[in-house]
UniProtKB/TrEMBL annotation:
The chain crosses the membrane at residues 6-29, 61-90, 102-128, 140-156, 254-279. Gene3D superfamilies: MetI-like. Its main location: membrane. This is ABC transporter permease subunit. Belongs to the binding-protein-dependent transport system permease family. Keywords: Membrane, Transmembrane, Transmembrane helix, Transport. One of its GO terms (cellular component) is plasma membrane. Coiled coil: none annotated. It is found in: Cell membrane. Residues 65-275 form the ABC transmembrane type-1 domain. InterPro entries: MetI-like, MetI-like_sf. It is a multi-pass membrane protein.
């Protein structure tokens, strides 16, 4: 009886979750549907001129799409190797007071509100202006660096967990084969941990793409156009959602906020789908 009640409770919770998610997606799509067209992304600008940057796009989402993709990819490039390396070190090297303290610091950093990371970037620019580089300003690189610090704990934690979940029998087998520590990590543990590491990368990408507090304080603005360099300001979809929903004067501007919401959701879902296909390909028996 208790097992059936528990099963029923799990089923009800699952259905509630699916219905809630479906309701949110349906509402966003229904509100944005009248605005989902080329003008939402490019406005009155010809498509090729907008994509190539020949003509600036006003009142549309193309610059925000490029800005979001740019800042997320740069943040991942900055955080990827340090995050994975930290996770490997925590999982595979002898425990010490330093490693215990580092693990605690990563857990604390993972729970740090993103607005504090944005405030750190904001004050960093003030320090640079006052003491080192008077011309320093908020920029794409600053936002990406702060986002990299924000997602680094996710990469380290998921890598550590994935490495520690490799069966002990497999580790013992590597000793029997005469592998040294480096060979064991490179040829056995890392390939067996691919799923967990990819999950961490997916989680980090989504975390970086949707964050608003960090980019608001470090470089994202409205109507900046396409990012011209790493040191330039830029537009981003999360900031566009906030800006258009908070400052809207017409239904069209509110429609831009809904359109940006659906676009951000599709961008994240597409990335997850591509990563999933890559992971399935890696599991294929014909994959080298």
């Amino acid at each position: 009886m208790r097992a059936r009640l528990f099963h029923l409770w799990c089923l009800v919770c699952t259905c509630c979750l699916i219905l809630t998610l479906g309701g949110i997606v349906f509402y966003l799509v229904s509100q944005s549907l009248p605005y989902l067209n080329g003008a939402l992304f490019f406005g009155d600008t010809p498509v090729w001129d907008a994509i190539s940057g020949k003509t600036r796009v006003w009142g549309a989402l193309w610059p925000a799409c490029v800005g979001t993709f740019s800042v997320t990819i740069i943040a991942l490039l900055i955080a990827l190797l340090p995050g994975i390396a930290t996770g490997i070190w925590l999982a595979e090297f002898p425990r010490s007071r330093f490693s215990t303290g580092l693990g605690l610091a990563i857990d604390v950093l993972a729970g740090t509100p993103s607005v504090l990371m944005g405030l750190f970037g904001f004050t960093m620019i003030l320090f640079l202006r006052e003491h080192i580089a008077p011309a320093a300003n908020h920029s794409l690189l600053l936002s990406a660096s702060c986002l990299a610090i924000l997602i680094l704990p996710y990469l380290a934690s998921t890598t550590r967990t994935a490495m520690q979940s490799v069966p002990l029998s497999l580790r013992i087998s590597t000793h029997a084969l005469g592998m040294n520590h480096w060979q064991r990590i490179w040829y056995v543990l890392l390939p067996r941990s691919t799923k967990g590491i990819l999950s961490g990368i997916m989680l980090s990408f989504g975390r970086a793409a949707e964050d608003t507090a960090v980019i608001m304080l470090t470089g994202a603005v409205a109507s900046a156009g396409l990012p011209s360099s790493l040191l330039a300001r830029y537009e981003a979809l999360p900031f566009s959602i906030f800006y258009y929903s908070a400052q809207y004067q017409t239904k069209g501007e509110l429609g831009l906020a809904f359109g940006a919401s659906v676009t951000l959701m599709c961008l994240t879902a597409t990335t997850f789908a591509i990563t999933g296909m890559v992971y399935q390909q890696s599991l294929s028996p014909h994959h080298d």
